[in-house]
Amino acid sequence: MSVTIRGARPGDAAAIARIYNEGIEDRLATFETEPRTPDDIEARIATGEPMVVAERGGAVVGWASRLPYSNRCAYAGVGEYTVYVARGARGAGVGAALLNRVVADAEADGLHKLIARILQHNAPSIALAHHVGFQDVGWHARHARLDGEWRDVLIVERLLGDAAP
């Protein structure tokens, strides 16, 4: 079944929160440990945060967003992405469709670089980043603790627009 990628709407907040909470529970994709509510997600959508969802068969099966890397003006052209796919939809190309859209939107918005920090044990997210053209640029050792254990993160980046090789 095909996937449609579109901008997130307030009515998507419950589905986005559910998918995000699966990622939190799995302890694979984020250092976050507290579940999100639909109100939390609605507030993010209301700020204009660039957020997209993947729809398959009328249901939201994934979401992605882009935040500024830093609020310092020198980094105005750098964004940091995140992608979450519902457990039942993983491995079917949903993540790639979402990330490709985030890349296209970032480039259209004039960004020159996208980055992500991916937990070292999150092999599916690392593979997704590589599949969509991101390169490994380093590691943050012992970046944060998750459930009391130090975790490293891989830093990936993709140059966009006139910064691209």
Shape assignment: globular
Low-pLDDT regions: none
Instruction: Report the biggest beta sheet as strand number plus sense, adding barrel if it closes.
Output: 7 strands, mixed
Number of helices: 4
Q: What structural class do you assign from the helix and strand content?
A: alpha+beta
What number of structural domains do the residues give?
Answer: 1
* Oligomeric state of the chains in view: single chain
Q: Please, what is the CATH homologous superfamily? A: Gcn5-related N-acetyltransferase (GNAT)
Strand elements, count: 7
CATH class: Alpha Beta
Percent of residues in helices: 25-40%
- Write the element-wise H/E pattern from the N-terminal end onward: EHHEEEHEHEE
In CATH, the topology is named: Aminopeptidase
- Per CATH, the architecture is 3-Layer(aba) Sandwich
Strand order of the largest sheet: 1-2-3-4-5-7-6
Rg (C-alpha, Å): 15 Å
Task: Give the averaged pLDDT, no decimals.
Answer: 97
Q: Please give the alpha-carbon distance between the first and last residues.
A: 35 Å
Can you tell me about this structure?
The protein has helices at 13-26, 38-46, 94-108, 123-131, and strands spanning 4-7, 51-56, 59-68, 78-85, 113-119, 135-146, 149-159. The protein has 165 residues and is of the alpha+beta class. The protein has a single domain (4-163), classed as 3-Layer(aba) Sandwich (Aminopeptidase). The chain has a seven-stranded mixed β-sheet. A hairpin with a 2-residue loop joins β2 (51-56) and β3 (59-68). α1 packs across α2 (38-46). The longest helix is centred in the middle third of the chain and has 15 residues, at 94-108. It is globular, with a radius of gyration of 15 Å.
